[in-house]
Amino acid sequence: MPGHESDMENKPDWQPRYPGSGRMEGKVAIVTGADSGIGRATAVLFAREGAKVAIAYLCEHDDANKTRELCEAEGADVMLSAGDLGDQKHCEGLVEAVMDRFGRIDSLIQIAGEQHPDKEVGDITPEQLQRTFQTNIYSMFYMAQAVRPHLKEGATIVNCTSVTMYKGAPILLDYSATKGAITAFTRSLSENLVEDGIRVNAVAPGPIWSPLNPFGGQPPENIPDFGEDTPMGRPGQPNEVAPAFLFLACEDSSYMSGQVLHPNGGIIVNG
Fold this sequence. Notes:
Rossmann fold; 8 helices; alpha/beta; seven-stranded parallel β-sheet
């Protein structure tokens, strides 16, 4: 980990499914984890809808440059930023660079994450526990803190939680715990910012075919049947999740804040 989408034989579907309608025209969006998977699909969809896009990623330069090319093919102005989002100083530098380049920030889309399967709770090392929380939830705090002074009325934050927060995952104990924290953070930050006209929501994907899973996020023996335990009997594709992020980022969802959308293949969850 991290995995490279360019190394996958069965490539995820990132392509937007419909023509753009200008729903993000003139807006600037930061999309974390945008080098591949759900992040790539979301960045390209935002580009098609007229946004300028800042692609934040760790170190997968080949994937990130491919996403940049795909966004530019949609006519978008794009910038790349590589580095560890679990580092507060890096997050501050990223936001400063976006402001220098684009002069505004309208949407913060937080998708970057990592997961490590462990069959026993005792197998989770202190280092892994710290790293998973640092990547998945500390980064969201750091980015929210960094963008807050630049967000104006009408701005949006959309966080990526998970179906595991609602139904549990016996081999993803630390990952699921971070997703619970993300959902609570989303709801609380929504209450904190709503009076200023800033909306905060989240998306809770089910099993999605992206580099996260085949490159260490699932045991190798689980990959052939990955996602088949959903009611739809298959994993989702990134371009089946990206529209949920778009909806929550644009004015289509103007009366929604503190909510979670569930593109999860038909799994029934509460809330």
